[in-house]
Amino acid sequence: MSQLAINGGPKAITLDQPDAFKWPIVTKEDEDAVVQVLRDGNMSGNDISKVFEREFADWMGMDFCLGYPNGTAAILSAMWACGVGAGDEIICPSMTYWASCAQALQLGATVNFADIERNSLCIDPDDIEHRIGPKTKAIVVVHYAGHPCDMDRILPIAKKHGVKVIEDCSHAQGTLYKGRKVGTFGDIAPMSLMAGKSFAIGEAGVMVTNDQMLYERCIAYGFYERTGVKTAWNKADAQVTNEDLLVYAGAPLGGAKHRMNQTCAAMGRVQLKYYPERIAEIQRGMNRFWDLLEGVPGLKAHRPTQWPGSTMGGWYAARGLYNADELGRLSCAKFCEAVTAEGFTTFAGSNRPLHLHPMFHTADIFHQGQPTVLAFGQRDVRQAPDALPVSMWSIDNTFSIPWFKKDYPELIEQYAAAFRKVAEHADELLTCVG
After folding, report:
1. Over residues 94-104, mean pLDDT
2. What pLDDT, in 10s, does the model give residues 111-169?
3. How is 21-85 classified by DSSP, letter by letter?
4. In sequence order, what are the residues at sequence separation of 6 or more whose Cβ sits closer than 8 angstroms to the Cβ of residue 291?
5. Which domains does the chain have, with CATH numbers?
């Protein structure tokens, strides 16, 4: 009898504990906070959002925070605050979600995509410096799937060339890099807090920074009602005082309204109270899973064991690294098909590399009769598919893994057994393929 479920054998996963995967954890405390906002008709105010911003900034150990309707808006605002405009360039890893960088096109800039590292799936520090040109304004680093970037190698490059560092922490709220939270290293850190993230409060986002001018520029871009008004909470007790921005008080320079819905702010305050203990349990469960698979051929953990004091935060969109050479060249897709038959639906790949996308090659966003990536005098930094080999490698050599929200040892052992079982019986699949 076959050992693998895909060939008629017994499934490795038999336990069913739905709460192990349920997220976010919503309690009566969350519900009461949100309902109170609705009853007060206070969805579009700022009072609750300002309290949430203060609490989030304090948790991060940062001076300033702004709440946004989504992470996309927060990243757009951060780019503009960093001086990104028509004819400029930013550098961003190709293997990420589009909202890490597509907003540059909205500002008339272009994206020079960099490759990633195989172990971290984060931007490769060795592929940054040669991309910096006279119009490069910012490097966007993405702490991908919760894995911290190598900030000790990235920051000196940015400082040498006078380029801003934007930390996209959408995957990594609470991630530590050598004992310090990501989002506290660069010039500004925008992030998504949408319902699927590890810090989930609805369709929302935030930005944190220690730079008062960047904070003021973000206000001027999309927070018309706060221009020239004291925040009355941050460490500097700051107000927007820059005269170049104050002359536009009452109208947003970005033509955008970036105010967070206060139902999200109310939920955010509750979620923040419990987030550290909840992600601590996630970390115990996810590390248990990978510890059980240590040494299994073909499978490698995506976690920062090379840096003491580093974590994966809430392990958002958790991934594994695949080595087909150790499994007789069995494809990652076929491996995932067999694991799915064991009781967990997995799939090969991560975000498809963005340097392949037509948006960054041919899209004429402003109807100027030419690609927007070139329309304002930018260098032509468009790249062929094979120009970023590790980003392309990720399509067939990464895979999704279960995202445990509870540390249930027996359940986690079954899920790990499913992956181990397929790896150890890869010869069955190779025979079938043959």
Report:
1. 98
2. 999 999 999 999 999 999 999 999 999 999 999 999 999 999 999 999 999 999 999 99
3. T--S---HHHHHHHHHHHHHT-TT-SHHHHHHHHHHHHHHT-SEEEEESSHHHHHHHHHHHTT--
4. none
5. 28-270 (3.40.640.10)
Output the pLDDT for position 238.
47
Longest Cα separation, the chain: 78
Distance CA 314, CA 432 (A): 38
CA atoms within 13 A on the CB side of 72: 11
Pairing relationship of beta strands 136-142 and 164-168 according to DSSP bridges: parallel
Report the C-alpha gap between 65 and 341 in whole angstroms. Answer: 45
| Segment 195-236, tens digit of pLDDT | 999 999 999 999 999 999 999 899 999 998 887 655 444 444
SS3 of 226, please? helix
Q: Which residue has the tokens 């000790």?
A: 152
Judge whether 9 and 235 are in contact, CB under 8 Å.
Answer: no
Q: Can you tell me the distance from the alpha carbon of 306 to that of 69, in angstroms, rounded to the nearest whole number?
A: 36
Q: Which pLDDT tens digit goes with each residue over 349-389? A: 999 999 999 999 999 999 999 999 999 999 999 999 999 99
Could you tell me if 434 and 48 are in contact, meaning their C-beta atoms sit under 8 angstroms apart? no
DSSP 104-167: HHHTT-EEEEE-B-TTT-SB-GGGTGGG--TTEEEEEEE-GGGPPP-HHHHHHHHHHHT-EEEE
The two tokens of residue 341 are: 């038959």
Q: Give me the amino acid identity at 353.
A: P
For residue 241, pLDDT over 80 is answered with: no
Of 207, 96, 92, 178, the C-alpha closest to 141 is 92
| Amino acid found at 5 | A
The pLDDT > 90 percentage for the chain reads: 91
Tokens coding 241: 């005082």
CB 413 within 8 A of CB 290: no
Peptide bond into 24 cis (omega under 30): yes
Q: Is the pLDDT of residue 276 over 60?
A: yes
Q: What does each C-alpha distance from 222 to 229, 274, 282, 301, 325 come to in angstroms?
A: 14, 30, 35, 40, 51
Which amino acid makes up residue 191?
M
Note the pLDDT of residue 1: 45
Q: Is the pTM of this model over 0.85?
A: yes
Distance between the two ends of the chain, CA-based, in angstroms?
19
The SS3 of residue 358 is helix
